[in-house]
Specification:
The protein has helices at about 1-25, 85-90, 100-110, 135-145, 150-170, 175-185, 200-205, 205-215, 235-245, 295-315, 345-360, 365-380, 385-400, 410-415, 415-425, 445, and strands spanning about 40-45, 50-55, 60-70, 115-120, 120-130, 225-230, 265-270, 280-285, 320-325, 330-340, 430-435. By secondary structure, the chain is of the alpha+beta class. The strands form two sheets. A six-stranded mixed β-sheet has the order 1-2-6-3-5-4, with helices on both faces. It has a five-stranded mixed β-sheet with strand order 7-11-8-10-9, with helices on both faces. Helix 10 packs across helix 15. The protein starts with a helix and ends with a helix.
Amino acid sequence: MNIHKRYLTLITTVFIASLSSCTQKGTLFEKPVMVPMQAGETRDFIVNGMKVIFKKVEGNQVVSAQLYLLGGSTVTSAEKAGIENFILNVAQNGSEKFSKEEVNNHLARTGAQISSSANNDYTTFSLRCLSRDFDLLWEVYTDALFNPTLDSAEVDLFRERRINSIRQAKDNPDAWLRVLSDSAFYKDTPYEVQPGGTEFSISGITLEDMFRFHSDKFVTSRMLLVIVGNLTLEGLKSKVESSFGSRTVGMYRAVKLSEPDMATSPHLKIESRELPTNYIRGQYYAPSMSSPDYQPMQIAASILRQRLFEEVRTKRGLSYAVSSTLGNLLSNYGYIYVTAKEPDTTLKVMLKEVKRIQNEPLSDKELRDKISVFTTLYYRQNESNAAQAGLLAAHEIKGGGYIRAENIVNNLKKVTPEDVLRVASKYMRNFNFIVIGDPSKIDEALFTKY
């Protein structure tokens, strides 16, 4: 027994000594050391239910922080449309820690910018500053996000400005055409709720509504934070944990969106106005970024735009404004657009070009040239840190994950002439036309046959 006891004591002593040595050397029970990031590298981490994507950029000293409140039109009603962007615009004018004057002074002194915007899929609250000023401005930014004072005078001022902006859009045929087109195309879907609000909704939103919405909807489960700049991962993670770690997580779940019912057959709506020309937009359902059809569809819409310009404007002089565009929403769309004094004649030319891109394969040269143009635009448009943050967020929210953003150019190069034919035939149909202008010049049969 004594031998056994002495042996057990010896083993225990050796184990404790080894444990002490390992602990001192940092090889046991110590928090793993974070591997330093390389320039251009992107990593992600989770803080309190919120995903954070960070890209380290050392080539400049600008930091772009973009917070995405997910859900967009799906998280509110038509009666309260625009409330989230309303809150974030007013939030920039004072919070619990920083008065309006202090906020403005900090921004003016550093040249920084805080802004917000909204679309059908999300609302964005953004900070752009220099890395040397990031510590201070991060406090200003996050306090505005979570602790806005929402001063009644500032609320009334923004309400007046927003209502005036909505009224002005009605007087602008192009702006109003977009509103009418989206409202008609997405009828009876969540996208029918306008993210910027309507005159009716903005007029009726109260301070109580704003504080209640802020309390209920500003939760980390519907937040995505994307930051691009010359920061350290350790320092950034500490700041995010400090600012977001104790916030309400909530129970946000994304709403599944499907093809709008209006996209299953052609439609025509005319708003009669006495104008020098007719404003025409024909909208159709299109693939989202997560679909393998998206990039072939980008090529198809761009080629069509080029051909419409040549046939409608250059050769025939029927219009100075003609286009083909692909949108970028979760429930996506594309459209053809023109202003024309002779709408029937012009549309016949445009639909002929739609049929052509659906039936005649592109030449290899035409396709390669277009891919080359897209590649150049991709690099030019993503030179800024803010643009890179937006690209990462768009792919995370709508494109199947931010990592896919790295494959854009390679995927474009894989598009074939047969892909372009296929997607053009599949999606460029059942046009929903909105016309602002002279109803007597519109052949309804022509506008609803395709």
